[in-house]
Each structure stands twice: as C-alpha cells, then as structure tokens.
Amino acid sequence: MGEDWKPMWKELGLDLKAHDELLSVLVKFYNDIFMSQKDRPQGMVYFDFVMSEVHGLRIKELLDAKAQGRKVIATFCVYIPEEIALAADAVQVGLCGGAEIGFNVAEKYLPRNTCSLIKSFFGFSQAKICPYFEASDIVVGENTCDGKKKAYEIFKDLRNLYVMDLPNMKHDLGRELLKNEYLKYLQMIEKLTGKKITVESLKKGIQISNEKRKAISRVMDLRKYNPTPISGKDGLLINQVAFYDDPIRFTASVNKIADECEKRVKEHHGVASKETPRILVSGCPMAVPNWKVPHVIETNGAVIVGEESCVGMRNIRNLVSDKGNTVDQLVDNLVDRYFKIDCAVFTPNKDRLDHIAQMAKDLKADGVVHYTLQFCTPYNMESHLVENTLSKAGIPLLKIETDYSMEDMGQLNTRVQAFVEMIKK
Ligand code: BJ8
Questions:
Q1: How would you label 331-341 residue by residue, b for 16+ Cβ within 10 Å and e otherwise?
Q2: How far is the CA of 118 from the centre of ligand 1 (A)?
Q3: Whose CA is nearest to atom 2 of ligand 1?
Q4: Is 1 contained in some domain?
Q5: What is the CA radius of gyration of the chain?
Q6: Could you give the percent of the chain with pLDDT greater than 70?
Q7: pLDDT, tens digit (0-9, with 9 covering 90-100), for 247-259
C-alpha cells in the first residue's frame, strides 16, 4: 500500500493490531498465490493494484462518496440487484467472508458447525477488521440458506440490517414474491439515500451493470480456447474484484484484459500447454481471500477454465433489459434476470445441473471439481444430483468438501493430484 491508511482505519474503529496481522498474512498469501504465476496477462497489474489497495484507496473512495452524501450498501448475495443501488447513486459492495478470521468471536454467537462463509462474515465484522463493514450505511441480507437466515436474526442486534425475503421455488407466486421484494427494497433504498429512483436513473443502473457483466463474460468466454489465455486463479480474481471495485472503472479494466486475452488466443499464447487438463470448478461462492482450492488445482498440473459459482458465472449470466417506460416495468425486467439465478437454495434446481453440464462442454473441461463448504446443506445435498448429471454426460467429477482452514491441504493435494492424473489426455 502506497499511503499510510492507519488514521483512516483508526477513525473507522478498526482493531488496528488485528487488522495489521490480517494484512501481513494476506500480503504473503497474495504474493505466494498470485505473484508467483508465470506469464500472466499484463492487464492483471490493475487487479494486483486493486487488491493491494482493497483496504486502503478503495475505502478512501467509499468515505469520499459518503462525504458527498452518497450511501454505501453492503451485501452478501448476488440476488441483491446492484442496479437499484446505482439508480439511487449509492455504492454497493460485497462483504469480506473468505478467511478463517474472527472465528473465535463468531462462535460466541453461532454454532461451531456453521459454514465458514457465515462464520467469516460474522468474524470479520465482530473482530473489527473489515473496513467495508465499518464504512457501510446498511447491510442487506437475504432469506436464502438456513444458516444465513438464522445468522441475520442474531446479526440484526449488532448492525443496521435489512433482510430481503426470497422465494424457494420458481413458480408464478415465487416470481411475484421476488418482484414485491424488489419493489419494497427499491423504496427502502430511496428512503435511505433520499433520492427518487426514476426511469432514467434505473435504466442507467441497468446499463452500468450490464456492461460489467458483458466485460467479464468476454474474458470468461475466451477461456474455452486451448491453450487458455488466463489462469483460473486470475479468472477468479476478476470475478472477486467485481464485488468491490467502482463498476465503471472495473468494466474498462476488464475490457482491456479481454482485448489482451483475445490477442493471446489469436497468437495461441496460453498460460498452460495444450495438454494441460482443464477443470471447471462448481459450487459454493469463493469470496476474497478464499483461493485455497484453485491454488491446489493449479499447482497440481491442471488449469481452471471456469467458475460455476456466484463469484463466477452465476453473477454474470443473462442481462437485464432496459426497455420500459415505467419503474415498475424495469423492476419486472430485473426480476426476469435475477429469477433465473440457479442458487442451490431453490428447489427443484434442474437449471443448475444443466448449466454445469453445458459449461463443462462449452469450456471443453476434462473434469469438474465440485466445491462445497462444510455444513453448507444446499450445495452438499445438490452435489449428489450434480454427480448423476455429470456421470450421464461422461464428465469426471471430484467432490471436495472443505473449510477455510489449511489443515486439509495435504489431503486436498493428494486427491486433486490423483484426479488430474486420471483426466489427463
Ligand atoms: S445466490 S450461493 S450468494 S445464497 S456456503 S452461506 S449457501 S451454507 S452463499 Fe449464496 Fe446468494 Fe445462493 Fe449465491 Fe449458506 Fe452454503 Fe454457507 Fe452459502
């Protein structure tokens, strides 16, 4: 980090000692995992910079935005439409939740057998080490898995929290529920920001979010080529940064890297040889700095060519139409897109099974690694159906159930190594 951000962190009320420890671990982790990669696209320099300033310059930007009267909305789920925040000139950010930090504090509130993602968001906030949290005006939760749902009940006493209800089934009543929830949410955001959302402002929000999705999709689509122009770790990083960065600046940077990757594809310039086994990773979201499994895969002789995840394809698939003359029509368009998200909390969830098989085919994956967090019932249960689907399609699968600790690294390395050997051409 270029500047001394300590006064800013102090003002935000962070625990400076614990935060310093976190940063020193993260910097080492980042250097080992990302900077050790060879032949990365030049454009990744931007993402390295964003990550180096993720608790510095970006937080300063959020505080500057607040000083200008804008609000900061912190979210945990890709069902919360950024378009609405943008329409009210607010800033939407995803919250930290990818490291085994503050678990001792989190376990004072939550059972030990809670998934790492939930424990991590609790831990980060309660241990006072997440500046995004401290900078936010409101935290928006959602009624998805039981773990999150019940955790928010505890969390509401600790924070300014808004919880959105979500349907569990994709029928007409479910769609109606989602639309009502989005309309209610829109009103809440108007009240919070003091800004009226108009047809024009919502269209602008839709366009900004669509451009972001289109840019990420350009890069992700190029990974189908062999050799693939970008590593899985860098692909994941782009998907992760999407939740923190300014959307317009982010989109421009991603488009630049897409141009570079297109050129690489034309020149057959890849990050791994053509013979390298190609893997699609599917399952639970991987929030920053959860890079464990991708690192294990890519240091065991394979390359990741796609992420079937909310920090991946689920966040960018399908655009929102900006056609409509009323806010209500535009909210309908939002529902059209978001209702298609194939999160495992929905039942039945055949779309996700089809998407995994289709992605594996489109990206020419030699195998799929299904990644779940321990105690994540929706994704763990659904992995059985994923296995059946992929087995019918003749696509090899490795199921990994893990957490944020490093205790199973030895076992993971052995299992991934054996899987990579098996799928070698
Ligand atoms: S749309 S995946 S972001 S809910 S890993 S907390 S499911 S027990 S994160 Fe998610 Fe929205 Fe769905 Fe995506 Fe629960 Fe599982 Fe933990 Fe999870």
A1: bbbbbebbbeb
A2: 9
A3: 343
A4: no
A5: 21
A6: 99
A7: 999 999 999 999 9
Token digits for 362? 């489109």
Residue 195 lies inside a defined structural domain of this protein: yes
Q: What is the pTM of this model?
A: 0.97
d(CA 168, CA 32): 40
- For atom 4 of ligand 1, the residue with the nearest CA is 144
Has residue 367 been placed in a domain?
yes
How is residue 161 written in tokens? 């929290």
- E runs forming strands in 309-414: 367-373, 397-402
**Pocket mutation for ligand 1, best pick of 343, 349, 402, 403 (most atoms within 8 Å of C-beta):** 343
Contacts of 216 by beta carbon, 8 Å cutoff, 6+ apart: 238, 239, 242, 254, 315, 316
Q: For residue 364, what is the DSSP state?
A: T
How many Cβ atoms sit within 10 Å of the Cβ of residue 96? Answer: 26
The alpha carbon of 40 and the centre of ligand 1 are apart by a number of angstroms equal to 30
**Pick the residue with more confidence: 421 or 156?**
421
Cα–Cα nearest to 228, from 187, 191, 186, 262:
262
Alpha-carbon distance of 333 to 352, in angstroms, equals 21
Pocket of ligand 1 (CB under 6 A): 77-79, 115, 117-118, 144-145, 147-148, 284-285, 310, 341, 343, 345, 373, 376, 378-379
Residue nearest atom 15 in ligand 1 by C-alpha distance: 376
Distance separating alpha carbons of residues 186 and 331, to the nearest angstrom: 9
CA pair distance 238, 233, nearest whole angstrom = 9
Q: Distance, CA 48 to ligand 1 centroid (Å)?
A: 27
Distance CA 118, CA 97 (A): 7
**Number of domains observed in the structure of the chain:** 1
Task: Read off the pLDDT of residues 259-295 as tens digits, 9 standing for 90 and up.
Answer: 999 999 999 999 999 999 999 999 999 999 999 999 9
How confident is the model over 291-335, as pLDDT tens digits?
Answer: 999 999 999 999 999 999 999 999 999 999 999 999 999 999 999
Locus of tokens 């013979």? 275
What domain range is 135 assigned to? 6-423
Euclidean distance between CA atoms 121 and 106, whole angstroms: 8
> Does any domain span residue 21?
yes
Cα 73–chain centre separation? 16
pLDDT at residue 235, rounded to an integer: 98
Cα separation, 49 vs 45, in Å, equals: 6
Measured from the CA of 373, which atom of ligand 1 is nearest?
5
